[in-house]
Amino acid sequence: MRTVPLGPWMDVLWHVPALLGVLVALGLCLAVARSLYLDALPHRAQNLRYRILGWSATVGALVCALVWPGLHHVQAIRVGPDGSWKLLNSLGISLAEVHPWELRRVEAEDLGGRRLGRGRLVVRLRDGRTFRSVRVPGRQFERARALLGYTEAMVLSRPLASEIPGHVFTTHGPVLAASGP
Question: What is the pTM of this model?
Answer without folding.
Answer: 0.76
